[in-house]
Specification:
Layout: E1 3-8, H1 9-14, H2 16-24, E2 27-33, E3 36-41, H3 44-58, H4 71-75, H5 80-92, H6 98-105, H7 109-119
Parallel strand pairs: 1-2
Antiparallel strand pairs: 2-3
Length: 129
């Protein structure tokens, strides 16, 4: 489920805590100035998934199929975004299942599935997809 909320800068200032909670629940909050959207507020994990997908499609590289993604390999990537890029790159190349990808990212498979859907990231379920 994806939904959008529009809010003025003034209303954002008055209800920042509530707006952040809405974003964490999956709502995209568009902050408007004179009726025109200027900024979008989204959940950080959704944002990282979107950036990882853009990185994958924007900067194609070879992801070795036989590489085992372990905790030590993940720890060698200095930022959260680097880890998302690595896991999602292997997921989008279909080297990792959605279940293993979710595990490596610290969430359940259904949660990752929902987040991918609302973020517009392709769902890879098998050779048919």
């Amino acid at each position: 489920m994806h939904y959008e909320q529009r809010i003025s800068k003034t209303d954002l200032a008055r209800s920042t805590h509530q707006v952040i909670r809405e974003a964490q629940r999956g709502c995209t909050v568009l902050v408007e100035n004179h009726g025109q959207p200027e900024v979008a507020i989204v959940d950080i994990i959704d944002f990282q998934l979107q950036r990882a997908a853009m990185h994958f499609f924007g900067f194609p590289k070879e992801y070795e199929q036989d590489v085992e993604i372990s905790e030590s390999i993940l720890k060698s990537h200095p930022t959260d975004q680097d880890r998302f890029n690595l896991v999602m790159g292997h997921y989008l190349e279909m080297h990792l299942s959605i279940g293993r990808s979710a595990e490596l990212l610290g969430m359940s498979p259904p949660e990752l599935h929902v987040r991918l859907m609302r973020s517009g990231v392709p769902i890879r379920m098998g050779t048919e997809s």
